[in-house]
Amino acid sequence: MACSLAGDLHCCLHSGNLNGQAAVAHTSPNFEAVKPRAFDARPMLVIWEMTQACDLNCAHCRANARPRRHPLELSTAEAFHLIDQIAEMRVPLFVLTGGDPLKRPDIMPIVQYACRRGVRTSLTPSTTPLLVRDAVFKLKESGLMRLALSLDGSTADLHDGFRGVAGSYQRALDAVGWCHEAGLPVQVNTTVSHHNLADLDNMTELLSSIRVVLWSVFFLVPTGRAQLDQMLTSEEHEQVFAKLYAASKRVKFHIKTTEGQHYRRYVLQERALESTSKSKADLIARAPKGVNDGKGFVFVSHTGEVYPSGFLPLPAGNVLWEPLSQIYLNSPLFRALRDTSQLKGKCGRCEYKDVCGGSRARAYALNHDPLAEEPCCQYIPQSC
């Protein structure tokens, strides 16, 4: 689920595409034995994958995106109906993603309709020739609140090699400039894997120089085109967390993680070490409950299927046949994911489980169980 205003509410933002639908494995939880938890009333964030069509060839693409649009994508009228539901649910944040949303000719009317319904909306376009200055200004005029652009390296070689198309790096930088010119806040999304692990310090300096409002750091989940050997180890996750936390103290933009929920645990640990008045237990008790897959977060596919996130391909329903609110509130899958008492392994024993909860998508990708322990967390739970 690239994403937008989520950093303002410390949400865990996912964007991206799906690669088919999977059945619940035999090791899945008891989806009926659940109790009400935080975020039961409504999600904090809904991401809609407008299309899977895209002209890039990204190494990590979860949809294996193709150039042409799918004939069963939600229509404009169905998109308006989805926005109506989101408005009625009073969802704080709505993200339009893909594929490339600019491949849809109705992108401007959809953004305008969301604006008229009072839905705060951001967009994650692909950096292709469709992303031009005029499009940025029209999106701003249509009521878009933020544009999110992908940059996966501080140089053209790194970024273009990852995205599979020469020139996408320069177009991203051009688009940042157009956003500044139009008065449209801009964020950058970066997928961290072994290809750019050594480039994060350079990325921090680049983002400081181009004046972004948020850096959303995505930690790779091996699904779609993303390969297991590109995923960071648990030790490498901690190394990146250390870099992000150090950077957060000196940069002017916000930093958040996607599919790196255990960064929240790392931050609380560091704050406990720095504090002379608050214990770890105090900090955990005061921390906001963490948004996670299906827990405050919803992903709607290009054909209307509803998932806990774009990285967790377990369908819970379809907005063409059932209201989004009913799927989110009543789906056994979503209800189970909101119940941290069902987490397994060390995630189930962890004192940070309500703040973190681990990546449910990564647990599913590696263990075929969305409630298994986070595979890339080296923390050993302790008593508070």
Radius of gyration: 19 Å
Largest β sheet strand count, sense and barrel closure? 10 strands, mixed
Total DSSP helices: 13
- Tell me the number of strands: 10
Distance between the termini: 33 Å
Q: SSE order in H/E notation?
A: EHEHEHEHHEHEHEHHEEEHHHH
In short:
The chain is an alpha/beta fold and 384 residues long. The chain contains 13 helices and ten strands.
Question: Could you explain the architecture of this structure?
Answer:
By secondary structure, the chain is an alpha/beta fold. Helix content is 34%, strand content 12%. It is built from 13 helices and 10 strands. Strands 7-6-5-4-3-2-1-8-9-10 form a 10-stranded mixed sheet. Residues 1-36 have low confidence and may be disordered.
